[in-house]
């Protein structure tokens, strides 16, 4: 498995985890959990971009 594939998987996991936290935070009116979810989604999006850049340079 190439490094960019591993990065893509990590990005997907973070985005999914963030989405779940965000939804639970919404449902329970838990602002800190919502914020944590948004942070995880953003982290996943950045990892996704990095993986794309690595793939383009190989």
Short description:
By secondary structure, this protein is an all-alpha fold. The chain is built from 2 helices and no strands.
Provide the fold topology:
Elements: H1 3-28, H2 31-56
Helix pairs in contact: 1-2
Describe the structure in your own words.
The protein is mostly helical. Helices cover 90% and strands 0% of the residues. The longest helix is centred in the N-terminal third of the chain and has 26 residues. The model has no long low-confidence stretch (mean pLDDT 94). α1 runs antiparallel to α2.
**How does the major sheet shape up?**
none
Q: What series of H and E elements makes up the topology?
A: HH
Distance separating the two termini: 14 Å
Task: Assess the beta-strand content as a share of residues.
Answer: under 5%
Low-confidence stretches: none
Helix proportion range: over 70%
Beta strand count: 0
Q: How many alpha or pi helices?
A: 2
* Class by SSE composition: mainly alpha
Give the overall shape: elongated
Mean pLDDT: 94
């Amino acid at each position: 498995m190439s490094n960019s594939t591993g990065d893509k998987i990590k990005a997907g996991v973070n985005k999914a985890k963030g989405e779940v936290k965000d939804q639970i935070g919404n449902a329970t009116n838990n602002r800190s959990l919502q914020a944590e979810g948004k942070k995880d989604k953003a982290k996943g999006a950045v990892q996704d971009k990095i993986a794309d850049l690595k793939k383009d340079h190989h």
